[in-house]
Amino acid sequence: MNYLATVSYNGARFHGFERQPHLRTVQGSIEKALSALCGKTTLIKGAGRTDAGVHALAQRFSFQNEEIKDTGAFLFALNRLLPSDIVVKALEAVPDSFDARHSSCGKIYCYKFSYGERDPLQKETRAQLERRNFDPLAFKAALECFKGTHNFQNFTTKPDDVDGFIRTIDAITIELDPSTKVGQVTFKGNGFMTYMVRLIMGCAFKAALGKIDPRDIPGLIDAAPRHIVAFKAPAEGLYLVEVLYAKRS
Asked: How many other C-beta atoms are found inside a 10 Å radius of the C-beta of residue 101?
């Protein structure tokens, strides 16, 4: 049978989600635990890849197994085998044709950061700009440029793309708390390529700190020939919030 699982993890001590030889990864850790629990080699298909240091609130993965009659007991046993920075939160049977990655119709990411006093207790869970002159209006103006459908070839290191680097960002929600100087930006779109959110956030941070003019950003998005921007925000602020699927009957 085909199963879809929801997993949360703190990515600080992982070399990303995808399995890599001799490196600690989220996929490798899950497959090791699943294989031990199922008594056979069990591989998973992730809904997407997160970079080293990036977190997930609700990443998804699918895998094949014999019928699991008690999913609660299965999850309890699986989580006991997993390291403490990974928790599988839900499990459901899905049609054999379902694929965690290719059946997805979009994703939601958020980026958490602070722009006030540096907090050592938050160094792994949000980016810290420290005490700098942060212009919220320039920050918001910069992010506004990325809404809609664009060719994002200059905001990913992906070498090529079957969709010609075209992606749609449906919504960007910005939350800034001037009293605590903590912020969060949430992105909802039909797909995000390698480093895409981090490069967008890096560009917005540069605008907020007066390093670039927000009015120049549309030119960076549409620039040709391809020239990848160099402003990449730190990994620790990025969270995969949700993987979106069409409603199944």
From this structure: 14
